[in-house]
Each structure stands twice: as structure tokens, then as C-alpha cells.
Fold this sequence. Notes:
The protein has 125 residues and is an all-alpha fold. The protein has helices at residues 3-27, 37-46, 48-82, 84-98, 102-113, 117-124.
Amino acid sequence: MSVEQRNALFGLVVPLGILALWQLLASGQTTPLFPGPGKVAVAIWQNAPVILSELGITLLRAAAGFALAAVTMIPLGIFLGRVRVIGVVLEPLMDMLATLPPPAIIPLVMLFAGTGDWAKIVIIT
């Protein structure tokens, strides 16, 4: 057996082993809080239209956030690169804001943009 075949076999055995362990642990449970992989797969199949609809909405928000970021930040970057004085003045502020983790910004976005789709697009941006 070659190294590639062994790696491919290992890459198949590990996920199957995890699924088998999950099923083994879930089969001893009577609570609906820990379903087995079979029940999860059936629930996903039954709710596929809703899941695909929500996935489409999520992808649309992500594309809108990317487009908004590109439309606003590329010209701003060009402007800050061309006008050195403004770039030098604003660079410390931008460096400070870049280090903030997104969860720290979410309350501010909710305060100014609300909780609707616009707020989600702004957070993605």
C-alpha cells in the first residue's frame, strides 16, 4: 500500500469512526437533545427547502457586504494613499479599529443600524 492510498484510507476511516462513535453514544440516549447522525440527516433532508432558502439569503448578505466594502474601501484606500497628510492622520485610528474583534463592534452596529438586514450587511463589511 502506497503512502497516498494509506493517507486516503486514513482520511476516510477517521470521519467514519467519528460518525460510528456518535451513533454509539446517541443510541444509548432517550433524550431528543442528543440525536444520532441518522436522525440529523433525516431532519436535514426534511428541512432542505428551508435550509436552502436561508442559505440563499445568507449568501446574498455576504455578497452585499463584500460589494459595499469594495465600493467604499477601495476608493478610500486610493484616496488615503494619494493624499499623504490625511493618510498619516487617519492611520493610527484605522490601526486601532483594525485590532477590535468583530463581536466588540456588534453592539455599536446594533445601536446605529438596528438589528435588520442592514446591520448584518454592515457587520460583514
